[in-house]
């Protein structure tokens, strides 16, 4: 007979210690507070007027009348925000 314990009584080997990995903070600059406010305002308005899916599509697709992506334009300046708001309120969401 063997001196080894049966397989069901064997003590499992301790798992090797795992190193803890953390994500490094991005080096990308954060948006200024006023840009964050504009982005939140236009996103909220679009969601209220269009619903989630249509709002996401509208905000992230280039629009010919605006000359760019509505979300980027609204985030960049007050004038851009106002242009996108007017377009949303007028009901012209198509290119």
Automatic annotation (TrEMBL):
Residues 46-90 form the Antitoxin Xre/MbcA/ParS-like toxin-binding domain. It comes from the Bacteria. InterPro entries: Xre/MbcA/ParS-like_toxin-bd (IPR024467). This is DUF2384 domain-containing protein.
């Amino acid at each position: 007979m063997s001196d080894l314990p049966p397989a069901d009584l064997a003590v499992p080997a301790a798992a090797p210690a795992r190193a803890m990995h953390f994500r490094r903070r991005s080096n990308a600059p954060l948006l200024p507070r006023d840009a964050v406010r504009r982005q939140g305002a236009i996103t909220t308005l679009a969601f209220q007027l269009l619903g989630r899916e249509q709002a996401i599509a509208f905000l992230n697709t280039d629009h010919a009348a605006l000359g760019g992506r509505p979300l980027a334009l609204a985030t960049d300046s007050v004038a851009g925000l106002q242009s996108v708001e007017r377009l949303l309120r007028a009901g012209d969401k198509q290119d």
